[in-house]
Amino acid sequence: MADNNGIVKFRTSPVFEPLLAPARYKGAWGGRGSGKSHFFASLAVEMAYQEPGTLIVCIREIQKSLKESAKRLIEDKIEHHGLEAHGFRILEDRIETPGDGLIIFLGMQNHTAESLKSLEGYKYAWVEQAETLSQRSFDILRPTIRTKGSELWFSWNPRRRTDAVDLFFRGSSPPSNAICVKTSWRDNKWWSKTLEGERLDCLHGQPELYDHIWEGDYEKIVSGAYYAASLTAARGSGRISRCYADPLMTYKAFWDIGGTGAKAPLMTKSMLSHMRARCRQPASTYR
Ligand SMILES: Nc1ncnc2c1ncn2[C@@H]1O[C@H](COP(=O)(O)OP(=O)(O)OP(=O)(O)O)[C@@H](O)[C@H]1O
Ligand SMILES: [Mg+2]
Questions:
Q1: Closest CA to 28 of 271, 216, 189
Q2: Which terminus in the chain has less CB density within 10 A, N or C?
Q3: What stretches in the chain show pLDDT beneath 70?
Q4: Which one, of 169, 211, 140, 149, lies nearest residue 28 by Cα?
Q5: For residue 9, what pLDDT is reported?
Q6: What is residue 17's three-state secondary structure?
Q7: In angstroms, what is the span from residue 95 Cα to ligand 1's centroid?
Q8: DSSP 151-180
Q9: What pLDDT score does 270 carry?
Q10: Nearest CA, atom 8, ligand 1
Q11: Domain that holds residue 62
Q12: Which of 131, 132, 188 to mutate to test the pocket of ligand 1 (most atoms within 8 A of CB)?
């Protein structure tokens, strides 16, 4: 709600505060329910309010309809702060903001570098669910958002180390002029009983997926993998470690050829008291 001086207070969890400073690239990654979407939705509204005439685009890799976009969340922020009385106007496919500003919503897969040229005057681009953003989309987007002081924001739940957004922010040469924060459910000031119930159910019922879903780890085991539970138990009891090749030992190779093209080569060596297995999992099963 705006106070008598027209100042609107946007509340932020401390973990996101570094992202309030200007930077060409901003990223927030982590597990489910950590407040990433709410933070960037608030930031978009705040920028539209503080900088009249600002153009903002909210992007997904795939957006078949506006229902899949961040529009509803942004509308909630506008209503929550009573900003319709301050020049915000919610239309069917876009939001008009003070001083002829705009917030629009698009899916990268419906566009080419050519059709995105209309975004050149946009100052802020927020990519939601950025783990699904393809390298092609990433490469098109970066030079398109080029107006003075423009920023690209990314929020995501990490999936694979090789996804474009992870290579960009968390790879061997992160971009200059970037601020990136790791978030988790612990950082969410609005954490609810419902979400806590979901988290605990996952912890006990699907422990092999817990770190990926709730702590923001990369996917290690594709759900449904035959040995997911056994591998998780092995990791939990410290039975997964480095195993060095001994040239004097005899090795046996087993090759599970699978039925779908996923193959799991397994090397074993017998010790006096136990058998050690060296496993090189296929990319489609283990990452
Ligand atoms: N700034 C906020 N104001 C009000 N509620 C919030 C705020 N931040 C988080 N929440 C609450 O916490 C929940 C989780 O936040 P949010 O959806 O932003 O998390 P997320 O990290 O985007 O989760 P996911 O990875 O599942 O998309 C929201 O549904 C909302 O109830
Ligand atoms: Mg979200």
A1: 216
A2: N
A3: 1-6, 221-229, 231-232, 235, 254-287
A4: 169
A5: 79
A6: helix
A7: 21
A8: EEEEEE----TTSHHHHHHHSSSPPSSEEE
A9: 61
A10: 35
A11: 14-187
A12: 188
